[in-house]
Amino acid sequence: MGIIDMEILYVIGNGFDLWHGLPTKYTDFYAFSETHLDELEQYLCFDIITENPWNNFEVVLGKFDWEIFYNNHNFIDVSDDSFKPSMAYGLEDDIKEQADNLVDDIQ
């Protein structure tokens, strides 16, 4: 009988991962992704430390506040004398890049 090389673990049932000692609790995930999650928290309208949203993470993602995200990345002052309408294209590109980065962080 040869040695089986296991590369994939299929998790069956609630608690199977924890019973096998895998670091899959929300606190483990938070320790791994603290920097990204702290940034994400400001856009999702919840307190990531006290609410422990891991069990409803997908639901929380649906609470994304695009206005806060937009305002945090919009540095254009339309009342400034140096404002040009073409600056809006740069803002659009920057917002898309920041949104892509945020999605990458979540993934």
Radius of gyration: 20 Å
Q: Which structural class is indicated by helix and strand composition?
A: mainly alpha
Low-confidence stretches: none
Output the number of helix runs.
5
Q: Could you give a short account of the major beta sheet? A: none
Q: How many structural domains in the coordinates?
A: 2
Percentage of residues in DSSP E strands = under 5%
Order of helices and strands: HHHHH
Count the beta strands: 0
* Distance between the ends: 39 Å
Query: What average pLDDT do the residues reach?
Result: 79
Q: What form results from the Cα inertia axes?
A: elongated
Structural summary, described in words:
- The protein contains 5 helices and no strands.
- With 107 residues, it is an all-alpha fold.
- It has helices spanning 16-19, 26-44, 57-61, 66-73, 87-106.
- The two termini are 39 Å apart.
- It folds into 2 domains: 1-64, no CATH class; 65-107, no CATH class.
Give descriptors for this structure.
107 residues; 52% helix; mainly alpha; 5 helices; AbiH; elongated
Give a short synopsis of this structure.
The protein is mainly α. The chain is 52% helix and 0% strand.
